């Protein structure tokens, strides 16, 4: 350390100078050691970085070193220093906070001085150690990445020689690392025809920086060690290290992926072929419900082009159907649920089931729908429902036209039937009872009763019991107007089925119109035969019902007319008031049910007079107060006699009970006023008063009609409803209603009832 020729004082001075020099260095320090390797002195900059809680001077050197690094100090350090040798160590010091890496150079002091036997020069190498550690970390990470990467990672220098080759590259290309290091990459994995282009690309990049593949994924064909080729995806990344150009390639083997794609294409092709052969219809949509794919054998039957359907919104896919049902089912599928709806397409009915369409991550990315043709089952359901409706109509006794219209509607549910017509035979002629879907150009040929021969010979043949199937356009006969109209409507066939009664006599025909000149199947013929039987039942029931109703109406009329035999002066009163009541009711637009109640009430309005003594009923002069009291009881008496009769409705009974109520409340039996009086009773009161004024009675002569109408106007607003009086007067100005037995006894178009007027009472009205 010091020149042995120097004096002891001079040597000490040199040592102190050295110590002072190190005091001024921030990244260096000096430790003075005695002969036991204990710290004799230390520079302040170093002491400040050591543990301040411990005294440094006088402590063994090892106390200044981190426990984990004390083994780095040579065990023979003392021996080396005694022999005048230097020593070196790299350790961490016991410092506050972050450990400090130091480089220790031990130098002996020659000759040794008191308390200064050796020096330890301390240099801070923490940054270098950190850099080395970082480099080791990066290298470890690189090695880990290279070793675990599933893709090949290959690095080459500027000359194209391999400098890095990971295990995945060995697996992919068959070469080991030892085989490829320093070899030209182009000679290993690049096909001969492409090697020149590879070399030119590297040269161009090194000269101009231009590159066509760097940073881009490109698909290329590579060579395997065994000589076969493989498809790979390559991305090249240029990088400079210490001024040297290197290239790293990341290579992904596409063999499995391309094979999977091939299998998927093959499976998709097979799936499409299967779907096209399936007797169903299927499609998929995107999240916006636009059709992405549609297939199925049904497309051919419906004559639909799948290419024209792709891209359309699902509501316009097949046409028809309720938009809210279609959208609702597909929205349910998008929400992860299942949907279902029915849709009619070209006379076919489909039941469509919609499910969510998932991707590989189980996310809903659209919908998939499968349409099943349920036409036959749906038609059977409709036929059954229509048949049940017809049976219900027959059972409850609905009007015959309504029942036959339901029956015709049932027949239009049959396959290919465009229109249905039910006809009845009357004296060898045909009369249409009901039709559904029949074009107007054909209906005009069935106005009234029609000669079947005038329509077409086939009609007469069908009535005679010949062939039930008639392709009328192919029939070898003249072109009648009906046949021309049939062709003009686009119809080619009219199937005619004979309907016979229980004795086998033809009572009608069933006509089914079609666009094809084919013959009915046996199953269809059976269905039409059943419909014909239902028609027969409906006609027979209607006949019985009309007989019952006619009998009932005649009975009611007989009760009304029976009263006339007590007073021959009022003969014909019942029939007159019935006709007048019905005429007024029709002018007022009353319903058929109201006309029925009015007509029956008119028959029975004076039934209570049966209980009136002859001396009062037939008295030629004015009635006394007591006699009037008896007379005023006849509405109540008639009501009590009839109110337990089931066939008479409440409105009919109200005519009997209230036909003597006055508009001003002065009538009887309850003194009702204004519109509190039932409408039918007010209608009949006008007619009854008019007939009483214009008829001869024991107490008066008949009035002329103009005088009677004038009297009605006087009674309007006092005895009679003024509005009804004005309507009746206007009606009489058009002439009297026709006298017809139909008005009296035919309930089919229901008719209104009336009450018979009598004569003038003490309040100025007619008396009854």
UniProtKB/TrEMBL annotation:
CDD domains: HDc, PAS. Residues 548-744 form the HD-GYP domain. Residues 736-768 are annotated as: Disordered. Residues 138-209 form the PAS domain. SMART domains: HDc, PAS. GO terms for biological process: regulation of DNA-templated transcription. InterPro entries: Cyclic_di-GMP/3'3'-cGAMP_PDE, GAF-like_dom_sf, HD/PDEase_dom, HD_GYP_dom, PAS, PAS-like_dom_sf, PAS_4, PAS_fold. This is PAS domain S-box protein. The lineage of its organism: Bacteria, Thermotogati, Deinococcota, Deinococci, Deinococcales.
